[in-house]
């Protein structure tokens, strides 16, 4: 977990299948209470519901393959002022975007990004 410059605790996690690991996630959240949790490889489908008490959930599910794969999600504490940004069409990566709008700081963009193999950041440049 990392504390951001504006004093928030952020986590990022490649879940490799969120539904089968939701108990593990809930235990971690109860223990550490992160303000924002970025999750990659959720493997969620639009038909799946996923909620965590006291958090707002934003997600983008991969829906082009028959097999569950990919997907990104952001959990943010309901007490934090923010809004979701629509994700533009992306070719090689998957992402979910929010904007934090704290009263005493400039807006901050937070993005949960997944780059599926065999792609690399170098390839995307």
Automatic annotation (TrEMBL):
<dbReference type="GO" id="GO:0003964">
    <property type="term" value="F:RNA-directed DNA polymerase activity"/>
</dbReference>
<keyword id="KW-0695">RNA-directed DNA polymerase</keyword>
<dbReference type="InterPro" id="IPR036691">
    <property type="entry name" value="Endo/exonu/phosph_ase_sf"/>
</dbReference>
<protein>
    <submittedName>
        <fullName>Putative RNA-directed DNA polymerase from transposon X-element</fullName>
    </submittedName>
</protein>
<dbReference type="InterPro" id="IPR005135">
    <property type="entry name" value="Endo/exonuclease/phosphatase"/>
</dbReference>
<dbReference type="Pfam" id="PF03372">
    <property type="entry name" value="Exo_endo_phos"/>
</dbReference>
<keyword id="KW-0808">Transferase</keyword>
<feature type="domain" description="Endonuclease/exonuclease/phosphatase">
    <location>
        <begin position="11"/>
        <end position="109"/>
    </location>
</feature>
<keyword id="KW-0548">Nucleotidyltransferase</keyword>
């Amino acid at each position: 977990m990392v504390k951001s410059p504006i004093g928030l605790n952020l986590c990022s996690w490649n879940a490799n299948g969120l539904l089968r690991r939701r108990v593990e996630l809930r235990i971690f959240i109860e223990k550490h209470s992160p303000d924002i949790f970025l999750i990659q490889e959720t493997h969620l489908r639009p038909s799946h519901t996923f909620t965590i008490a006291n958090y707002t959930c934003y997600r983008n599910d991969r829906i082009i393959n028959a097999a569950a794969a990919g997907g990104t999600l952001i959990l943010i504490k309901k007490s934090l002022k923010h809004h979701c940004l629509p994700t533009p069409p992306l070719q090689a990566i998957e992402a979910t975007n929010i904007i934090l709008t704290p009263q005493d700081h400039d807006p901050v963009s937070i993005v949960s990004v997944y780059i599926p193999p065999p792609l690399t950041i170098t390839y995307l440049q």
